[in-house]
Amino acid sequence: MLSKHYQPTSRRAFLQQSGLLLAGGVIGGVAASQAWAAENDAAQPKLRAGLFTDVHYADRAPAGNRYYRESLQKVQEAVGAFNKEGSEVAFELGDLIDEAPDVEKEIGYLRTIDAEYAKFQGKRNYVLGNHCVYSLTKEQFIENSGMEKPYYSFDQNGFHFVVLDGCYRADGVDYGAKNSHWTDTEIPEAQRDWLKADLAKSTLPTIVFVHQRLDLDKDTPAGKSYAIKSSKKVRKILKDSGHVLAVIMGHSHHNFYKELDGIHYCVLRACIEGSGEKKNGYAIADLFADGSIRIRGQREQASYQWS
């Protein structure tokens, strides 16, 4: 069931208010957003995407505010909403699974939750999170899910999409087989070089996805735990490209937004937090020809409109 608490915004009001709305969330839903779009044919999105993160699925008892088994139903709801809304692509932003007593059982967790994600009727995309490759290797995750590569890019409907992999230690070694700590996270030089070259080859408006935080720096209190070590270097690459619109992240489990160098940095709310269907969070993103983006948050996910 989708959230119905939406405040409709006209196209004119959206353009006038976007500076204010950048700083905060607007609770969203489906019926009113369709009415908003119907006001002007030009307001129809060029592309619609489903977004969710930090599922942490595991067949085990709750711990703290994490209800591992309930994540199965939360993903079912999100995927059902994506399909109902006609989303052409979907992105899960990492930590699809949590730890099991052994690798075989953890692969079982991955196959179970991925079977629900596989019910999405469009193009599925995966971002590696630290829990995805804490016990498993990257190869094991890829072999047992719909993921094809740890980092990659593609074009669709006039937009460029980039998926980054922050699951490396500071020394450049891949996470896997319990060789890492979640606060030690990096995008190595080779991947940064790839990113720079990839962005140079495209002139399309671009959305970047990564699990760990690129909006924070390691020398800050919050960044000490959540930031990618080379976040400043990566942000410079994104800024210098001149066509990155937004960076969507997970990892820290709570809604957060800031604008840096004209780029929207957004952290999505984790699916895992809390018990019951109302304690879920996912979003439907509408991308428009003029470069504006509307994030329609569902359940406890915040909503945003960015010009």
Short description:
The protein has a six-stranded mixed β-sheet. Strands 4-5-6-7-9-8 form a six-stranded mixed β-sheet, covered by helices on one side.
Would you mind describing this structure in some detail?
The protein has helices spanning 11-21, 30-38, 71-84, 103-117, 138-143, 189-200, 221-226, 231-241, and strands at residues 47-52, 89-92, 123-126, 152-156, 159-163, 206-209, 244-249, 256-260, 263-267, 281-287, 293-299, 304-306. With 307 residues, it is α/β, with parallel strands linked by helices. It has one domain (26-306): Purple Acid Phosphatase, chain A, domain 2. A six-stranded mixed sheet has the order 3-2-1-10-11-12. It has a six-stranded mixed sheet with strand order 4-5-6-7-9-8, with helices on one face. Helix 3 (71-84) links the parallel strand 1 (47-52) and strand 2 (89-92). The longest helix has 15 residues, at 103-117. The radius of gyration is 18 Å and the shape is globular. Mean pLDDT is 90; it is low at 1-41.
